[in-house]
């Protein structure tokens, strides 16, 4: 893209951010939502036949796809009886004029790691169940996500997409001959099975107010964000504060309450 | 990665932890400001087994030019671990973990620095972990903050950081590696601006209840303020020494590092 266009786009974004701030100060959001209101969420399962589980999630105009592939892999030396998960996201350039092709940047890395922690630390997947042969082979569930359209709050959209894909995910049938482990294409041994449904809820701080599910223009105006992964049985499994602003301990408590309430609603859609 | 340790370990016994500390006790913390002569500001920090060196360069022109912000300085924080700083040799290439830590640590410092005074510049903060035993990111941030002050960069406040969390069913301060590996371990890196208690860095992983969080945050803020005390003392010590050297003008060391 030409630099001139980029600069023009930057200026427009700055102007829109000013409008967002002005509006929030008056207790309103530009699109008329309440401060804690999410945009419409849609979840479509099984969007890829070849994936072992997949989903496409929209959050307003934000659009994310998640696909799971479960493959035999080597166990970590310090946990020979345990399988594992791996979470990745690519900000595809088709999803935003600001995304570029290339190795994952710090935004992508942060997002993927936070979604990973929310799932992993909730212990919703029993890694012991993913053992094929102790010390030799274990199942590794790769959860790979791709942005289709970025209109803000990719954290929550990705978290929903990852969980939606996991709820569908099945472990392939395996043929073992000596040291060779071969997946039988198109056949499955069992469902992956989730003991809990951890979901991330992100609250942004704009002009000193707490605002949920920020759209892209609102993200440009935010001072900071705080994400909390919660489970249906009252646990939290991950926190992440991002952005250059700060939160008071009281605000963090409010974010936690919001996270439990919002995740409960979203969980019904899964 | 794996958190399977011997489940029979008693992480807390009679109010004492595995290493003999109380529940709310920090590991020994030593901070020294101004340890590298080429850097604009620097700091060496030892916190239990953790050993960290931080250097600050800048504010200096941000390059390439298109990354410049005409309204404020950028903070470029780079957290790196030496290959020998962990039990197994670490791949020297910066990994995803280092990338994430660098990003959120830089953001944590942004709130403290008067960035708007230095448009189009970058403030580079380099932190190298030389030895580690849990809690290196908060050690890195505490060291970076002292290095920034040492560089004379105007700040609203220090950034003080500590790890808080849970092991063996108890909420505890400043977890070490054994505690971080407990089956029920929860790790909460926290950084605040100590004067206002504004939270500038907060992460958590593990399974935590809201009631436990309430205890943890209170303990974490207390811990940060203790770290703040050590940070201030390190700076005070350095400037007292500088003053002394100024009084005896024939010493060479007084010449550099100051007044930029």
Describe this structure in a few short sentences.
Chain A has 270 residues and is an alpha+beta fold.
Q: Give the CATH H-level superfamily of chain B.
A: GHMP Kinase, N-terminal domain
Number of helices of chain A: 5
Return Rg of chain B in Å: 19 Å
CATH topology of chain B: Ribosomal Protein S5, domain 2
Second CATH tier, the architecture of chain B = 2-Layer Sandwich
Instruction: Give the uncertain stretches of chain B in residue-range form.
Output: none
Report the portion of residues of chain B in β strands.
25-35%
Using DSSP, what is the number of strands of chain A? 12
Distance, first to last CA of chain A: 39 Å
Tell me the series of helices and strands of chain B, N- to C-terminal. EEEEEEHEHEEHEEH
Identify the overall geometry of chain B. globular
Number of domains of chain A: 1
CATH homologous superfamily placement of chain A:
GHMP Kinase, N-terminal domain
Could you characterize what this model shows?
The complex is a heterodimer of chains A (270) and B (260). Chain A has 270 residues and is an alpha+beta fold. In chain A, 29% of the residues lie in helices and 34% in strands. In chain A, strands 1, 2, 3, 4, 5 and 6 form a 6-stranded mixed sheet that branches. Chain A has a 4-stranded antiparallel sheet with strand order 10-9-11-12. Chain A has a two-stranded antiparallel ribbon with strand order 7-8. Chain A is elongated. The two termini of chain A are 39 Å apart. Chain B has a single domain (21-87, 99-240), classed as Ribosomal Protein S5, domain 2 (2-Layer Sandwich). Chain B has a 5-stranded mixed sheet. Chain B has a 4-stranded antiparallel sheet with strand order 9-8-10-11. The A-B interface holds A 3, 76, 78-79, 82, 84, 104, 106-107, 109-110, 112-113, 117, 120-123, 224, 226, 234-249, 252-253, 256, 260 and B 1-2, 4, 66, 96-97, 99-100, 102-104, 107, 110-111, 188, 193, 197-210, 213-214, 217, 221.
């Amino acid at each position: 893209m030409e630099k001139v266009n980029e600069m023009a786009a930057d200026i427009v974004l700055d102007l829109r951010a000013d409008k967002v701030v002005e509006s929030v100060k008056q207790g309103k959001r530009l699109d008329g939502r309440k401060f804690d209101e999410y945009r419409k969420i849609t979840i479509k399962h099984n969007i890829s036949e070849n994936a072992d589980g997949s989903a496409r999630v929209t959050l307003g105009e934000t659009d994310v796809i998640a696909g799971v592939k479960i493959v035999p892999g080597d166990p970590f030396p310090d946990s020979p009886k345990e399988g594992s998960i791996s979470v990745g996201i690519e900000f595809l350039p088709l999803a935003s004029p600001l995304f570029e092709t290339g190795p994952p940047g710090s935004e992508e890395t942060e997002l993927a790691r936070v979604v990973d922690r929310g799932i992993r630390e909730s212990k919703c997947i029993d890694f012991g169940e993913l053992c094929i042969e102790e010390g030799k082979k274990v199942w590794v569930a790769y959860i790979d996500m791709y942005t289709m359209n970025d209109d803000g709050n990719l954290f929550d959209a990705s978290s929903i997409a990852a969980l939606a894909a996991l709820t569908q995910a099945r472990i392939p049938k395996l043929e073992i001959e000596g040291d060779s482990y071969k997946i039988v294409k198109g056949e499955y041994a069992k469902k992956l099975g989730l003991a809990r449904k951890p979901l991330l809820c992100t609250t942004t701080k704009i002009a000193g107010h707490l605002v949920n599910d920020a759209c892209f223009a609102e993200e440009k105006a935010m001072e900071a964000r705080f994400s909390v992964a919660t489970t249906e049985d009252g646990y939290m499994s991950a926190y992440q504060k991002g952005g250059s602003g700060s939160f008071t301990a009281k605000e963090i408590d409010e974010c936690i309450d919001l996270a439990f309430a919002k995740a409960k609603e979203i969980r019904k859609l899964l | 990665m794996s958190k399977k340790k011997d489940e029979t370990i008693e992480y807390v016994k009679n109010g004492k932890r595995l290493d003999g500390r109380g529940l709310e006790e920090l590991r020994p913390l030593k901070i020294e400001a101004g340890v590298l002569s080429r850097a604009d500001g620097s700091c060496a920090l030892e916190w239990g087994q953790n050993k960290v060196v931080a250097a600050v360069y800048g504010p200096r022109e941000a390059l390439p030019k298109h990354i410049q912000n005409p309204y404020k300085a950028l903070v470029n924080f780079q957290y790196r671990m030496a290959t020998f700083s962990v039990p197994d040799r670490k791949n020297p290439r910066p990994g995803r973990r280092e990338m994430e830590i660098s990003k959120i640590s830089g953001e944590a410092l942004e709130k403290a620095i008067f960035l708007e005074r230095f448009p189009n510049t970058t403030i580079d903060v380099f932190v190298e972990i030389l030895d580690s035993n849990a809690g290196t990111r908060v050690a890195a941030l505490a060291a970076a903050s002292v290095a920034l002050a040492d560089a004379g960069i105007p700040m609203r406040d220090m950034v003080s950081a500590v790890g808080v969390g849970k092991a063996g069913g108890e909420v505890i301060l400043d977890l070490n590696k054994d505690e971080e590996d407990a089956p029920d371990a929860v790790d909460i890196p926290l950084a605040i601006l100590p004067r206002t208690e504004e939270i500038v860095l907060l992460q958590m992983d593990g399974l935590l209840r809201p009631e436990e969080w309430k205890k943890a945050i209170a303990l974490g803020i207390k811990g940060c303020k203790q770290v703040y005390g050590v940070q201030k003392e390190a700076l005070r010590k350095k400037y007292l020494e500088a003053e002394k050297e100024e009084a005896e003008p024939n010493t060479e060391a007084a010449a550099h590092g100051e007044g930029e």
